[in-house]
Design brief:
Low-confidence stretches: 1-7
Number of helices: 11
Shape: globular
CATH class: Alpha Beta
Helix content: 40-55%
Structural class: alpha/beta
Largest sheet: 8 strands, mixed
Mean pLDDT: 92
CATH superfamily: Vaccinia Virus protein VP39
CATH architecture: 3-Layer(aba) Sandwich
Strand content: 15-25%
Radius of gyration: 18 Å
Order of helices and strands: HHHHEHEHEEHEHEHEHHE
Number of domains: 1
């Protein structure tokens, strides 16, 4: 079992819900309430691959958008960066992460990725996972613009998101997937193809340096075991047995993911903010 994951805050403490609320609760919080720690479409393996290419180090000023349960925050903090700021819109998540991980160089602040209130050119590394896919095109643009603004020239930006397959997916199939997933998960879902993700980043001013894809197997047994460990899987199974409404939600999500398995993928991309000609980058 991954000890780092077990140190994550209790999901039920971050986003408590009454039994009746589970019917309407966003899918990722239903999973978190059952004890699932890793809520990324490509799983912990793709997160680790992303972080390896972002390569946080002790000279970095790191900003994470939507740290959630703090799994990736712990990976970044293990490299002892100069500073870390987590931008979290959920008050309970920000408060609990600050209590558990915060210090004079590590802060979790209540804000949105669209408006962080951080200084321009103040970060050398920015990343966010599983959050752009749930934004409208306009919100995606504003979040990327904010990441670009707060990054120093030469700074690195990384994302880990849901992607559609193939790159030439018909518009009617895209709309059907978005509609069914949004209805099922109770959160607006607007993923892009790999080509579109790269174009969106480039239009925001970034230079794409690296990309990788992985199957979207969030609720498949092998991925669950790899992400959560044996005891983590047993904890989730125990909670599923005693929470029938949540169990129905999870089974419904898994059926949907399997229905569209050939059209769903996870993508990780690392890019940089170009330095102006003649300027020194980080």
């Amino acid at each position: 079992m991954n000890a780092g994951l077990m140190q994550s805050p209790r999901p039920s403490a971050i986003h408590p819900a009454k039994p009746g609320d589970v019917v309407k609760q966003p899918g990722h919080w239903v999973l978190a309430g059952l004890g699932k720690r890793v809520l990324r479409p490509g799983g912990l393996a793709l997160t680790r691959e992303l972080m390896a290419h972002l390569h946080p180090c002790d000279d970095d000023s790191v900003v994470e958008f939507a740290p959630g349960l703090g799994v990736t925050a712990r990976i970044a903090l293990a490299q002892q960066p100069r500073s870390y700021v987590g931008i979290e819109r959920e008050p309970d998540a920000a408060r609990l992460l600050q209590q558990e991980l915060g210090n004079e160089n590590v802060q979790f602040v209540l804000a949105t990725a669209e408006s962080t209130s951080l200084h321009s050119d103040s970060a050398s590394l920015v990343f966010g996972e599983a959050m752009l896919s749930m934004q409208t095109p306009g919100q995606k643009q504003r979040i990327l613009a904010e990441a670009f603004r707060i990054l120093k020239p030469g700074g690195r930006y990384g994302i880990h998101e849901l992607a559609l397959l193939p790159n030439e997916i018909p518009d009617d199939e895209r709309k059907a997937i978005e509609r069914e997933m949004s209805t099922n998960i109770h959160v607006g879902v607007r993923p892009a193809t790999l080509t579109e993700w790269k174009r969106i980043l480039e239009e925001a001013g970034f230079h794409v340096d690296w990309e990788a894809q992985a199957p979207m197997h969030l609720l498949e047994p092998k991925r669950l075991l790899n992400d959560e460990g044996l005891l983590g899987v047993l904890r989730i199974l125990f909670n599923l047995l005693r929470k029938p409404i949540a169990r129905q939600r999870v089974l419904s999500m898994r059926r949907l993911f399997r229905k569209y398995a050939s059209h769903l993928s996870a993508v990780a991309i690392v890019c940089t903010k170009p330095a102006p000609a003649g300027a020194e980058s980080v």
